[in-house]
Amino acid sequence: MRLYQGIRSLILSLFRKILFLWVRTDVSGNTLEALGLDPDKPVCYVLQYSSLSSRLVLEQEVIHARLPGATDSLPVKNGPAHSFFYLYKRIGGPFSGGRQTPVPTKEFTGLVQFGLEHPEQDVQIVPVSLFWGRSPDKEKSLVKLLLSDTWSVAGRLQKFLIILVHGRNTYVQFNQPLSLKQVVDEYRNNEEKAKRKLARILRTHFRRVRQAVLGPDLSHRRTLVEGLVRTQAVKEAIRETAAKDDIPPEKVRAKAYKYADEIAASMSIVTIRFLELALAWLWNRIYNGIAVNNIKVAKEVAQDHAVVYVPCHRSHIDYLLLSYVLYKNGLMPPHIAAGINLNMPVVGPILRRGGAFFMRRSFRDNPLYATVFNEYMHVMFTRGYSVEYFVEGGRSRTGRMLPPRPGMLSMTVRSFLRDHRKPIVFVPVYIGYEKVMEGRSYLGELRGKKKQKESVFGLAKTARKLTNSFGRVAVNFGDAIPLADVLDEVHESWRSEAYDAEYRPTWLTEAVDELSKRVASNINASVAVNPIGMTATVLLGTERLAMDEGQLIRLMDQYAHLLRAYPYANTVTLPEGSARDWVAYCENMGLITRQPQKLGDIIALEGANAILMTYYRNNIQHLFALPALIVSLFENKTSLRRDKVLFLTSVAYPYLQSELFLKFGQDEVESVINKWIDVLIDQGLVIQLDDERLGRPEEGTEAMLRARILSRFIIQTLERYHITLGILRKYGSGKLTAAELEEQSTLLAERMSILFGLNAPEFFDKTLFRNFIANMQKTGVLTTDDNGLLCYGEGLDEVAEDARLVLSVEKRQAIQQVTMLDA
Fold first, then answer.
1. Which class of enzymes does this protein belong to (predicted)?
2. pLDDT (tens digit, 9 = 90+) per residue, 212-250?
3. What Cα–Cα distance (Å) separates residue 461 from each residue in 346, 451, 465, 469?
4. How far apart, in Å, are the Cα atoms of 679 and each of 534, 562, 651, 669, 682?
5. Domain spans of the chain?
6. Which of the following CATH numbers is that of domain 269-366+388-524: 3.30.420, 3.30.70, 3.30.870, 3.40.1130?
7. pLDDT for the residue numbered 224
8. Alpha carbons 678 and 633: distance in angstroms, whole number
9. How far is CA 142 from CA 138, 522, 727, in A?
């Protein structure tokens, strides 16, 4: 027997070496840390299908990762001879390709019996999923049906062809172990029920992993496009358009088909594999690495939900980067909503085959196009496809999160109301660049240069940048947002109501607004703090954009410690190393300059970099918003009562929350402010004078310097608010429209930017003033009369007087000169 086992082991080892002359694998979860294995308990791996090739791949990966051996004998009597077993037992002849069904094998039965007979012992069962090629199925495609690892079970000839075609793109996923003891404990006196329970858990697990990795079955694109035109909603839109424009229905139908063909993606596994290789080369060329954090959120929800990935939008690279990260981590790339401007020659077809579907910038005046697009989105969600779109609409030129646009979110909500059998979950994603590729063009646009239209020639120009280094990139996944939970909060009885393709319930706007806020705040709560952002934040807080190197290093270390003392969210990531490392890194990236000096080198921002660095400062500004606001109240006051600090911070918070998408709700912000006050006292940035009063540090101390620079992290935002309040008070109640107030505020902000050399282009951004005015209307500080003029009461004067606490004398005088208010 021992001789037989030795010969068998030798033959299998030879087969494994032959197989891996061809096969190349991409593996996830194959570390002791990721699996969390207990070294004192035996390990048993379980594969879904009885397959020699799968067994050989498993053995190879276990050996390569130095995990407990799959070929070792398991110390379990009457159980598996080796430390693995198959869940599915093959039925049929060796060459029949017979159907495999999930019936218990003798190894499975023996393992369960051991667990029942030895309650004091446990076995760690590690499910392992294996995919050849990871190609989603395409209906009516014979080649794909034969040569893809799909939802169906392959026969032996088909498996040989699959390995031949896709063996060099094999994906293996090790998953968290199950405890045999915990699974069978419930049925110690009923072996049959214990076996059924373990088999059910494993079957469910494999199905969920397969759903996440392969995605749902894909319809053939032509079939999908034709099906869209045949839907009831599109038929109705065709009839209405034909009647309204007096066009024959056949021509309108042809137009609807053209729209559907223009929109629909044509995902191709060949293109995805090509992009994977091309992008791996690209990332290695231009980046120093990609850090992926908290991706377990996406892996978990992808198993049972239609996932909507909602990343922030900072660069055209975002499209490619997220799909690459998902694919490399064992998830099916999403269908991506892309602007029609990207449907360029050469580039457009590649993006479409990579999963992009194209949408026009606006289709409010084209009901036929709107209906076709809505139906396409409905098909995506009801079939369980993962989808990606950017809620901001366009790329942020300032580094801040832009206000979400309701269009795609509204379509998603309406689709879910029509058919909510497949739950939808939003997964926010923060993509953080240390050096954004379009940085210089953003700088030009902020200075008034016209945005350049995307073209193949523009792409060729961008290709010249590939010799540059753009640092590291972070892809952070935020906390998932189940759509049903949001709807439950907004309109509890939504499930009992009937909806059709055109119905818009009265509470839809409220639901979309709430969803928008939650998505934006969860993206910001997943921010990746990097050395560039920290250095930019501190240097931009100095008066001359320069500082002694030693002092800069101390301040950055202290502000990083502040973020650790009261973490904004558990999904925020901080940079590795110390401030000294960060300064050296920024210098190496060419973003700061060093001026040697005998008393100590000076680090400075110069030229275009001074403005460009505001982009990276704005990425993380929201993390410092509350502590900076609290400290800024002592800019012109040596002391304040604690309740006054709490009141003033609470008054300003709704406007900061709206502008910076802060995550704390109104019901929790008071406790958060109190916690920050305590942290600032511990850090020496605020002094506890007595039980009721708080003070600022003594002038001339390093603590005062830290407090002053910290206050400057938020001071320009507060100055913008004061500009608007000042103009309102100059003209008086009922004298200005919202548009006029926005225009006047923008002009004064631009003037102050010139007078005081402010480097932040967003200081005179019309959108920010518009948002502030809208929020004052929402909170009731401003009302609108019948003529559209803004009205206010005495409360605004009190708020304006309090707001002056944060302004320097020079800036109060500059505002006074224009608004003619008392200093």
1. transferase
2. 787 665 556 778 888 899 999 999 999 999 998 889 999
3. 16, 15, 8, 16
4. 20, 8, 21, 15, 5
5. 22-214, 269-366+388-524, 531-819
6. 3.40.1130
7. 83
8. 16
9. 9, 43, 70
